Amino acid sequence: MTLPIDMRAVHIPEPGGPEALRPATQPLPVPLHGQILIKLAYAGVNRPDALQRAGAYAPPPGASPLPGLEGSGHVAAIGPGVSRWSVGDAVCALLPGGGYAEYAVTNAAHALPIPEGLGLREAACLPETCFTVWSNMAMRGGLKAGERFLVHGGSSGIGTTAIQIAKALGARVFTTAGSAGKCEACLGLGADRAINYREEDFVEILKAEGGADLILDMVGGSYLPRNVKALAMEGRLVQIAFLTGPKVELNFAEVMMRRLTITGSTLRPQSDLAKARYAAELETHVWPMIARGALRPLIDSEYPLEDAAKAHARMESSDHIGKIVLKL
């Protein structure tokens, strides 16, 4: 494969709103030991990209300064020490950054084959979301068949994925969303109960059901004490983001009395080894769900790379249902 010297990309000259994303020409990245270079066909758009654009989520040391944490395409080059992949292989991958470009490098162990039955467009929506959901809901949260599971933001990329995986694991799935249309979409994905948080109180609904055994939350703020109240005895709360803030007053006596567990994580700063372990888990447990039709990415919209600012505006409007992708 003949490689160019430069590539199209979208960068962030200065932090700001969606308009801070600007088309640019960048040097082609070079894969180092254990890395692969991917010629991207599609890239997923995620909330952490918007945080980085706003100057609130710096890339880890050594990562590309370009936004973009997931994508799909074909292997264009391999670095020393890589044995699994060959040039031309179709892959989707978790990226340390750099997805808003024609080419990106990533650890070879963070790439996965395109799941059976999916194309590159759908596969680009999987890595960031599936790594996050599986590592927090299944591995950290320990969701089991028969348990009551609540995910907030059910119509988001994380939410639509969590609903389907939790249902495939045999859980009773509850979710919150902000409109009747979004609630209907969540029910269509397998949720047993979709709660319009503008009209209903998720705490009262879950308490009437015996409480949630596991809650996956990205809202934070005032939801934190309400989540605690919504948990069943020995329930678990896993926090993965703070859309409304990380600080709140919380009565920990309730945590002690009902033997609750509060935990959480962020994906991007974790080690290459941890992410490789998550990738192996996905290939073993989640990719078969996709192959049998139990999990399908729900795509809201697609934009050309140069319109990344419009994609971010769409995401931050919260009008979308499912994932937003960039076409390279």
From TrEMBL:
- Quote the Gene3D superfamilies the UniProt record gives: Medium-chain alcohol dehydrogenases, catalytic domain (3.90.180.10), NAD(P)-binding Rossmann-like Domain (3.40.50.720)
What is the name attached to this protein's record? NAD(P)H-quinone oxidoreductase
Q: Which PANTHER family match?
A: OS02G0805600 PROTEIN, QUINONE OXIDOREDUCTASE PIG3-RELATED
Q: Name one GO molecular function term.
A: NADPH binding
All copies of the Enoyl reductase (ER) domain together span 16-326
Q: Does the keyword Transcription regulation apply?
A: no
What UniProt keywords are attached to this protein's entry?
A: NADP, Oxidoreductase
Instruction: Tell me which NCBIfam families the record gives.
Output: quinone_pig3 (TIGR02824)
Q: Name one Pfam family in it.
A: ADH_zinc_N
Record keyword NADP present: yes
Q: Which organism is it from?
A: Cereibacter changlensis JA139
